[in-house]
Design a protein that fits this description.
By secondary structure, this protein is mainly β. It has five helices and 30 strands. The strands form eight sheets. The chain has a seven-stranded mixed beta sheet, with no helix packed on it. The longest helix is centred in the first third of the chain and has 23 residues. About 10% of the residues have low confidence.
Length: about 425
């Protein structure tokens, strides 16, 4: 072999060895610039950790969900590691959630952790993966030493689910009438039901009777959930302008300068031209309600229709209850008519007949009479909530899994 060929041959060997060493040194955790993703690849075994860096607000606890995928063709033993450039924080494993274990080939797993930031400023926390490819048994002792995660005291966290599923899951599977389960067994509970209404093979659900578990705190106010419509959206009406609580004052009506408004419907029974519509629009525009969470609804303006198809509709984010809403909320026990919507006040509905308007006592009234206005909205049924719907533990929207933060730290998505 000539001297020149030897030099080329040795150079090639050095280059190959250098590339292998460089690849091995970066094989554990490589942060891409375009995506906040950790990739690892060693000897044909690889994984991807989707988004490993998070900002945590000062003096707050946030639930982090990590998605890890085994992109290789063999099992991976793994464990999650936590690290931050700040101190005075804690990372907890979430109860009933495995933060280490084995991933089968191509398996994807979501892991939940609770990060408690006890600092007076935001922190950035990074998660990586401890793995053991070469041994059958996972080296737990080494992992626990490195993890920086409290595994012995798991964080007790109620995982949120879609509100429409939460409501139905809290009832028994009686196809005729779903009876709520959160009722004291010592109390007669036949007057507390979740009715089903069928229309063209579609089903809606209505709370009926003396209901105890249809409370929701939303936008810092208390609402009573009335129904789940055919599309899975949640209709709810104001109960108080304060959050739900055991001792709250029932105050479900629109106010002006802290005084409850009594208003006539107007010069016509046409809701779109009524004074009531103007009050509702003003209330909604000043409410601060997030339009991404509520439904731009087609409110039914027909005369009493007994749960049949509606023809006359009005599109808006806010409206009133209808005759059917109130009638479906009533449970009749002998001669007693029981409904959770009673307030000892008279208020308008959307339902009209012969230029008169029904009120909540299901009587027709002249449009020039003055009654109260109870705003009603629909929120999207796939919104994640926690709680059991009782006054003391109402449904609330859960944003602990959201990446929203007030931190100035920029986290790449």
């Amino acid at each position: 072999m000539s001297q020149t060929k030897k030099i080329y041959f040795l150079s090639a060997i050095v280059l190959i060895i250098g590339c292998y060493a460089l690849n091995l040194s970066y094989s554990l955790f490589v942060q891409t610039e375009e995506k906040n993703v950790v990739d690892s690849s060693v000897a044909g075994i690889s994984y991807t950790l989707k988004q490993n860096t998070f900002a945590i607000d000062a003096n707050s606890t946030k639930i982090i969900n990590l998605e890890i995928t085994n992109t290789s063709d063999t099992n991976i033993n793994f464990g999650i590691l936590a690290n931050s450039d700040k101190s005075n924080y804690k990372v907890y494993a979430v109860k009933d959630n495995q933060i280490y274990g084995t991933l089968e080939p191509k398996e994807n797993k979501t892991i939940f952790l609770a990060v408690q930031n006890n600092n007076e400023e935001c922190i950035t926390i990074k998660f990586n993966v401890y793995y053991n490819y070469t041994t059958v048994n996972f080296d737990k002792e080494t992992y626990f030493t490195k993890a920086n995660i409290d595994i012995d005291n798991p964080y007790d966290y109620e995982f949120p689910i879609a509100i429409k599923d939460k409501i139905i899951n809290l009832a028994t599977n009686n196809i005729d009438s779903l009876r709520t389960t959160l009722i004291n067994e010592n109390i007669e509970n036949n007057d507390r039901l979740l009715k089903t209404i069928e229309l063209d093979d579609k089903v809606s659900y209505y709370f009926s009777g003396d209901v105890l578990d249809n409370y929701m705190t939303y936008n810092n106010s208390c609402y009573r959930i009335v129904s789940i419509d055919y599309d899975g959206n949640i209709k709810m009406t104001m109960e108080s302008d304060a959050p739900c609580s055991k001792d709250m004052t029932v105050s479900p009506f629109i106010k002006k300068d802290e005084t409850v408004i009594d208003s006539a419907f107007g010069e016509t029974s046409d809701f779109s031209k009524s004074l009531i519509k103007n009050y509702l629009d003003e209330w909604f525009n000043n409410s601060g309600i997030n339009k991404d969470e509520v439904v731009l609804n087609n409110w039914c303006l027909d005369s009493k229709i007994d749960n049949k198809e509606c023809n006359n509709k009005y599109e808006s984010y806010v409206g009133l209850l209808t005759y059917d809403d109130i009638n479906n909320s009533i449970y009749t026990n002998n001669e007693d008519k029981i409904t959770y919507l009673n307030t000892n006040d008279i208020w308008w509905t959307l339902t009209q007949l012969d230029n008169q308007i029904y009120t909540n006592d299901l009587s027709l009234n002249d449009i020039n009479k003055t009654y109260k206005i109870r705003p009603t909205i629909l929120i999207k049924g796939d919104i994640l909530v926690k709680g059991d719907g009782t006054k003391t533990n109402p449904y609330i929207i859960d944003d602990s899994l959201s990446n929203k933060t007030t931190c100035d730290v920029i986290i790449e998505e």
